[in-house]
Amino acid sequence: MQNFNAKNAQRVQPVIMQPYGLLAQRMKKPLQRRTVDWAGDVIRTRLHRITSQHPSCDPPFVGTGPEANYDLLLPQAYAHLPATSFATKFVHSSTNKIRTPICALVWTPDGRRLLTGAQTGEFTLWNGLTFNFETILQAHDHPVRTLRWSHNRKWLLAGDDSGCLKYWASNLNNVKAVPTAHKESIREVTFAVTDLKFATCSDDTTIKVWDFVRCQAENTLSGHGWDVKTVDWHPQKALLASGSKDNLVKLWDVRTGQDVSTFHGHKNTVMSVKWNQNGNWLLTAARDQLLKVYDIRTMQEMQVFKGHRREVICALWHPFHEEMITSGSYDGSILHWLVGYDGQQAEMQSGHESCVNALAWHPLGHVLCSGSQDFTTKFWCRNRVGDNLGERDTTGTYAVGGDAASTAGYGGGRSAPYNRRQPVPPPPL
């Protein structure tokens, strides 16, 4: 019996699991990614376009309850409600494995990916739906300062700090390079309407007009007394607008190479000039903390926007709302403005921890991307109906709503200066 009991005792000894066994491995926590799926919005917008072609149909409206989020359309459907496109809701923050400042960014023409240019000279592709990393490419040997797609969506031009200009195909194959396009850093590239010519500006105080096919400089525009920081081609005419470190904004006739007019409205470096899609308004942003809109039909200052606490680094128009402006500042804040309204209409006071170097709207106008000196690329989307723009979100961003925001169904705004179209009940069956 003693032997039997000893055998049983030996038989029932507990089995000790190995610490690194298969069953002892820690289960990985599933990763949940925020996404902004625009497929449903596209389908609903196209259906609404088909069913609302009759002149008696009212323009689309935005409901007031949470259920209205399911029927939200693309920004192009709300031409009469630009406040619905204020992108103040944080979605995702993307950072390269090697942390480096983001100097330039641009969406691919199909809107499926975002391309960023870093200070290390690298191109990084981010997915436009889930915002995750896709690929990285060592494109330049110096910091990439500007990226611009042609209007036919086939070619990408990139300029860097050494004055090198490169042609890139849509599959990111380097087709051609001009190592000595400028003597100093290339700050911006802009295409003509026909894509047969393009213009570049540089810190060597010159603007060059190039033939795209031959890749040769046809004309050099000299007139600025200091670094030329920005240039933009008129959407319909052979007219260039440029801003410089000499605080001047100049208009150039591309055919003759002469400056047509000069605006003396800023007291510090002009960092950005952008033509509106209507071809009549010119937006300027400078380090004097001001944004200005000029009407070239009268050659007069149309409106001044004050609200930034530090220097304005970048600014751009919305792709569908011609009166909507978005600007980024040296302190990391991002502001939304509307022509005809005083003050900012929406503000992300802590959008970034450092200078906002570049901004880019998604081709559909529902997502805003920002690249900063704090090594991050952040994505912002439209707020849901009923969200309070005066509440702080999980990232610490404090979004403040203005007059137009309160009229579009978002809280946190002041009194509305104009009436929003009220929902019309459906006709009886």
What does the largest sheet look like?
A: 5 strands, antiparallel
Categorize the overall geometry: globular
Mean pLDDT: 84
Helix content: under 10%
Report the end-to-end length measured between terminal Cα atoms.
Answer: 92 Å
Number of helices: 3
Per DSSP, what share of the residues sits in E-state strands of 2 or more residues?
Answer: 35-45%
Strands of the widest sheet, in order across it, are 22-23-24-25-29
Tally of extended strands?
Answer: 29
The unreliable regions are 1-18, 20-24, 390-398, 411-429
Q: C-alpha Rg, in Å? A: 26 Å
Structural class: mainly beta
Describe this structure in words.
This protein has 429 residues and is mainly beta. The chain is built from three helices and 29 strands. The protein has helices at residues 2-11, 39-51, 403-407, and strands at 87-95, 102-107, 113-118, 122-127, 133-138, 144-149, 155-160, 165-169, 174-178, 186-191, 197-202, 206-211, 216-222, 228-233, 239-244, 249-253, 258-263, 270-275, 281-286, 290-295, 300-306, 312-317, 324-329, 334-338, 346-348, 356-361, 367-372, 376-382, 399-401. The strands form seven sheets. Strands 22-23-24-25-29 form a five-stranded antiparallel β-sheet. Strands 1-28-27-26 form a four-stranded antiparallel β-sheet, with no helix packed on it. Strands 2-3-4-5 form a four-stranded antiparallel β-sheet, with no helix packed on it. Strand 23 (324-329) and strand 24 (334-338) form a beta hairpin. The termini are far apart.
